[in-house]
Write a structure and sequence with these properties.
It is a single chain. The protein is an alpha+beta fold. It is 28% helix and 40% strand. A seven-stranded mixed sheet has the order 3-4-5-6-1-2-7. It starts with a helix and ends with a strand. 14% of the residues are buried.
Length: 133
């Protein structure tokens, strides 16, 4: 029998694995946290990526020597959603971001929405991966 505490701990573990893998550029481990039909939204740039393969390419190709540290994870009792605050560093720049995750019945990440501090225009070169809305 799965308890609420187990569900919450599972979500936290998946989110921690996702961010650790991203920070290490361990794309196999990163991919293992994602549902095949994952949807990734960036409201500030009005971009959406559909599907694990496109999302993996997006992350592999993301420029810079950035690092990420998880500051806080809050997961719901039903084992379906989590909110995360992270600190990103890239060179001397630091910025906080908030991320919302939704999980499918298998505990894989099915939706991600990232909120960054400021709106910005998306960098060139990722048009082949994203839809604009």
């Amino acid at each position: 029998m799965t308890t609420t505490a187990d569900s919450t701990a599972d979500l936290r573990a998946t989110v921690e694995s996702y961010w650790t893998a991203a920070d290490l550029r361990d794309w196999d481990t990163f991919a293992a946290t994602l549902a095949d039909e994952v949807v990734y939204d960036l409201p500030q740039t009005r971009e959406r990526i559909r599907g694990k393969e496109r999302y993996l390419v997006f992350n592999r190709e993301y420029p810079g020597d950035w690092r990420v540290r998880v500051e806080r994870i809050v997961a719901d009792r039903d084992g379906r959603q989590a909110a995360v605050r992270t600190l990103f560093t890239d060179g001397g720049q630091e910025s906080y971001a908030v991320h919302f995750f939704t999980f499918d019945a298998q505990g894989l990440i099915s939706e991600i929405t990232d909120f960054w501090p400021e709106p910005y225009e998306p960098p060139a070169g990722r048009e082949h991966l994203v839809e604009r809305y």
